[in-house]
Amino acid sequence: MVANPTNDKIRVGVFVCDCGLNIAGAVDCAAVAEYAETLPDVMCVVRNKYTCADPGQNEIKNAIHQHQLTRVVVASCTPRQHEPTFRQCVREAGLNPYLLEMANLREHCSWVHPGEWDGATAKAKDLVASAVARARLLQPQEELTVPVTKRALVIGGGVAGIEAAIELGDAGHQVVLVEKQPSIGGIMAQLDKTFPTMDCSI
Amino acid sequence: MKIRKKARYVDPDLCNACEECVKVCPVVKPDEYQMGLSSRKAIYIPFPQAVPCSYILNMDDCLGNNPIACGKCAEVCDKQAINYDDEDEIITREIGSIIVAIGLDVYDPTEMDEYGYTRFENVITSMEFERLICAGGPTAGHFVRPSDQQRPKRIGFIQCVGSRNPKIGRPYCSNICCMNTIKDTLLLADHYPDMENVVFYQDIRSFGKSFEDMFQRSREAGTRYIRGLPGDVREDPNTRNLTVTVENTTKGKLEHHELDMLVLSVGVVPPKDLAKISGMLTLSKTSDGFFMESHPKLKPVDAPTRGVYFAGFCESPKDIKDSVCQAGAASSRSGALLNAGQIQIEAITSRIDETACKKCGLCAAVCPYGAIVWKKGEAAVVIEAACAGCGACGATCLFGAITMRHFTDDQLMAQVRATLGENPQDKVFCFACNWCSYAGGDMAGISRMKYPTTNRVVRTMCSARVSEEMVLEAFRCGAPIVLVSGCHYADCHYINANRQTVKRVQNLWNKLEKAGVRPERLQLEWISAAEGQKFAKVMYQLEEMRQAVTMEEIEHARQALKPKPKKAAKKKAEAAVAS
Amino acid sequence: MAATKETFRCMLCGHEYQESVEKGEDKERSCPKCRSNSIRHLKKKSSTKE
Lengths: 202, 579, 50
Hints:
The structure holds three protein chains of three kinds. By secondary structure, chain B is of the alpha/beta class. Chain B is built from 16 helices and 27 strands. In chain B, strand 21 and strand 22 form a beta hairpin. Chain B is globular and about 90 Å long. The mean pLDDT of chain B is 93. By secondary structure, chain C is mainly beta. Chain C has a single domain (4-49), classed as Rubrerythrin, domain 2 (Single Sheet), CATH 2.20.28.10. In chain C, strand 1 (4-10) and strand 2 form a beta hairpin. Chains in contact: A-B, B-C.
C-alpha cells in the first residue's frame, strides 16, 4: 500500500509555509527551514508561500517521490483546519496518511506573537523539532470503516427542525422528528406576524 | 437511540377534533400557548393549526380516569379516541445522523425588578404582545391592556431586556428583538393610527435584508425612538398608568414618559434542555451558553461530534430566515453522510498487548465508553468500534501494555524531549487536548490575542491521555512549569474522561511534593474551544510563574524525579531494542 | 451520604478555602478568588480545621 520500497527507513520531509505574510510576517521562516535541516532524519526542507495551495501540495508530492520520503511534516496552520487536506495530499503520493504530522506555526505562533520576531522564531523552531520527533515514530494506520444507518433523527420541531426534517425527507431519507410539546411549531407558532415581510407565522 | 413517545391519552388517528370533549371538561387551566393570557381545559388542542391535529389530555390536570370522579370526555367521544390507560412508549431506532434543533427559551424578565414585570399588570413581554395582537389570540386581536381591558393610547417598548447586559450574565445580542419591536410598532400603527409608540433602545440593529427599510417605515409611521434604557418604572395606583424614567443620551437629559402600557422586548436564552442534549451527544457550548460549532467559519453547522449538525437558534441567536438557511445546510450535510452510507473512524484507537497485560482491569475501569472488556484473571480486550481514542486507558496502564494508535507513549515522550531539548528553563510546557484547550489556543490565534512566546504545546486527543510519566519527563527535561489542560467538565469530548486527568494531577502534586519539588510548578486548567481569551490569560499567568522558578529548583527536580533504577534499566533495554 | 467540609488549595494563587463535598459528586472546581482550575484537594486537614 505504501509505494515507497524503503518504508522502514525514516526519511522526513519538512515543508515550511509562509502563509503569505500570515506566518512569514512574524516568524523568520528561512531560519526555521534552515534549522529543520539540522534535525535527525530530515532529508529535505521546502519553503512554500502557501503549502495548502496546489503548487504547495505538488511540491510535497514531488518531494515524496524525489527524496523517497516516508514521513512528512507540514509546518503551517492548525491541524484542526488542514490536517485532512495534507493527509489527502500524502495519500495521493502513495504515503499512508498517518505518516503526516503538522506543526502549528500560525494559530499557535505567528498570529499570537506579532512583533516578537526572535521569540516567535525560537518557538516555531521548537514546534518543528517536536513535530519531526513525533513524525519519526509515526506508524501507518488503517482506518476502520463502519456503516452508517440511513436514518436521521431531528431533535426539536420548531421552524429549524421542521425545515431540516422536510429537506431530508424530500431527499429520500428516513427521518424521525422528536418534539417534547404536544404539537410541532415551536416558538414561531406563538408569533403573530414575522419580520421583515409581515406574513403570518403559521 | 431510544425515544420516549409520551402518552397523549387521545388517539390522534381516531380524534377528529370535534371539540365535544372540551365542552364537558370541568377543569380550567392557564393556556400555555396564549402565554397564560387565557385558559384551556385538561383536554385541549394546543392551538388550532397544531400538528398532529388532535386533542391531548394532560393527566396532571385531569381529575382522573375513574369514571366516578369524572370521565365525562370519554362519554361524549363518539370515536372512542380517549384512552385513560394510554402509556408512554419507548421506541428504539438506529440512527445514522442527528440534527439538533432544540431552539431557545425566552428570557424571563422578572429578575430585572426595575421594570416591574409581574408587579405591574400593564408591563408585558414581547411574547405576550404577540398573543395580544394576534387574531388567534385571547382577545381575538383586539389590543387591550391587562388591567382594564381598555385599548391603550401610549405604548412604550424597552429594548435589550435580557440582552447585552453583562450585569445579569447575558452579554450577547439576541439578534431578533430590534426587528421584532420595529415590526410591532408597524402593526400597531397599521391597526391603530392614533396610538403613540415610543421605543427606548441602546442601538437599533437593523442589518438584514430590507430591515433598514422597515426601520425607516416605523419612524415615518410616527414611532419615536429614544436612545437610552430606562432606569426606573413606576405605576400610578389609580390609573394603572406607568411612568418611565430614562436618560435620553442623545439629548443628555433625564426624561419622564407617562405610558398606558409597557412592552419589554425580551431577549432569548439557551434552552434549558441544552445541557442534557449536550451530555448525550458530547457537544460543547460557547461562553454565551449556545452550542459550539466545529469551526466558526468553515464548519458552521457541524457539531464537534461527527454526524451531528445544528439548525436554528440553539447554535446562536438568529431569525427565522437564518434558521431556515441553517436547517437547509444541516440537512444537506446530514444527507451527504447518509448517502455515503459509511464513515471512516480515525485510526487512533487503543490496542492492548495481551502478553504484556497484567490482567489488573484498571483500564476497563477508566474507559468512559465501556469499550474495554475485562474479566478477573483474563487479559483486557478493546472493542475497536466502541473505542473513541481518548487514551485514558493508555495513560492509566502501569505496565505499558496499551498502545494508543497514532498517540503512542513513545511519540509523545519524543515530543516532550524534542521541545525541551534546548534552554528548557525558558519554556512553559503545555499539554492540550485536541477538542477544547488546543482549539482554545487556535481561537486565541484566530482572534489575534497576544501572549508570551514562551509556551510550548503538545497536543493529545484528551487530557486524560497525559500520563504521569509524561509530566515527570517534562520536569526531568528541565521544564520550569508544566500545564495540563483539557475541556471543562460539561464539555469533555469523551463523556467524562477528563475526571481521570484530575485524579492524575492530584497524584502528581503529591508525588512532586514528596520529591521536594514545588507542586505549584504543575498547573491544571480547563479551557474550552471558545475561550481564546482564557488561553491567553493562562499563558500570561504561567509565564509569570516561570520567571520565579530558579535554576536550582529546575536542577533539583531533574535529579529528584529520576526514574527508579529498576525501571530505568528496563527503559534503557527497551530503548536499545527499539533503536 | 452527608456532605463533609473539605479543604482545597489553589495552586495558582495559593488561596486556601473550605467547601462542602458530597460523596460521589462530579463537580468542576475553580478558585473562588482567581478562577484557576488548579485546585488541590488537601485531604485529612479538614477535620482539624473544622
